[in-house]
Amino acid sequence: MNFPHELPPSEPPCGPVVTLVGAGPGHPDLLTVAAVKAIRRATVLLVDDLVGDAVLRYARPSTRIVRVGKRGGCRSTPQAFIERWMIAEARRGERVVRLKGGDPCIFGRAGEERRALEAAGLRVEVVNGITAGVAAATALGVPLTHRAHAHGVIFATGHTRDGAPSPDWRSLATLASQGYTLVIYMGVASAAEIERGLREVLPASTPVGIVQHASLPQERRVHARLGDLHAALSRHGLASPAIIVVGDVLAAASPHVTAPSAQAGGAAPTPRAGLNPTPAAVQEC
Ligand SMILES: C[S@@+](CC[C@H](N)C(=O)[O-])C[C@H]1O[C@@H](n2cnc3c(N)ncnc32)[C@H](O)[C@@H]1O
């Protein structure tokens, strides 16, 4: 069997194309084969905050890697600027890959970027990735839709666009009380508000799980109760990036279930011949 990095890169499609690629929750073992192929094919990689350097080892030495997140103390690059940049590079004939954490279509602005790129006459490809919420659930030992406890799952965000109303936590709590597991992204800063809103319907004893840095060596997991959510975050010093899972499925959590990467100690892959030992020409901001 070939490993992903030994597979030949797939043929580049004709005409200018930009590929929106999900890099998964962070550990390079959780990249898809399609993601590895796209990264290897890229001549320009625009990389989001939560994409770790280990993932970038799959890029070719000549690939220009541009960080467009907040790492290194930089402010986040404005969205319109990123879109203009992708358009300009693709029109110049570069093979542009926009690499995002998790799945590009889950709280990843894929919709906005696709619209801007298509409006500029470019073709857009999407490569799905493992979204952080699913990786976090595995870290907690939880099947999100365990049929004894849940018949659905809701991905919600604790952070909305400036000026947009907050999610209706009361309504989401009602759904949770009817057997829907809540998976909350970007919820750390608003944990007090989330706890208050959900508690209007759900009992304080409702199980919650929090995972910071799911799939990475520094991963941390905490099991708590809804009535203690905000306090548990501060007590354990948990910060972003973290996922909060709420629901009775946590009662079925198994401490023995872990992702293979976590079992292996989260080691990054050894670069192979022809791959970057270190990210090439990483440019911050
Ligand atoms: C802008 S959203 C991007 C989500 C991403 N597109 C996905 O599908 O996972 C960023 C949020 O995703 C969550 N997140 C991303 N990576 C994570 C990780 N490895 N562990 C825990 N949470 C993560 C955190 O809630 C973080 O604040």
Automatic annotation (TrEMBL):
UniProt EC number: 2.1.1.107
Enzyme class: transferase
Domain of life assignment: Bacteria
Any one GO BP annotation for this protein: methylation
SUPFAM superfamilies in the record: Tetrapyrrole methylase (SSF53790)
Biological or metabolic pathway of the protein: Porphyrin-containing compound metabolism; siroheme biosynthesis; precorrin-2 from uroporphyrinogen III: step 1/1
Keywords assigned: Methyltransferase, Porphyrin biosynthesis, S-adenosyl-L-methionine, Transferase
Any one GO molecular-function label of the UniProt entry: uroporphyrin-III C-methyltransferase activity
All copies of domain Tetrapyrrole methylase, residue ranges: 18-229
InterPro entries: 4pyrrol_Mease, 4pyrrol_Methylase_sf, 4pyrrole_Mease_sub1, 4pyrrole_Mease_sub2, CobA/CysG_C, Siro_Cobalamin_biosynth, Uropor_MeTrfase_CS
Key word Transferase present: yes
Sequence segments annotated as region (Disordered): 259-285
Family matches, as Pfam families: TP_methylase (PF00590)
Family, as annotated: Belongs to the precorrin methyltransferase family.
PANTHER family noted in UniProt: S-ADENOSYL-L-METHIONINE-DEPENDENT UROPORPHYRINOGEN III METHYLTRANSFERASE, CHLOROPLASTIC (PTHR45790:SF3), SIROHEME SYNTHASE-RELATED (PTHR45790)
Name of the protein described by the UniProt record: uroporphyrinogen-III C-methyltransferase
Source organism of the structure: Caldimonas aquatica
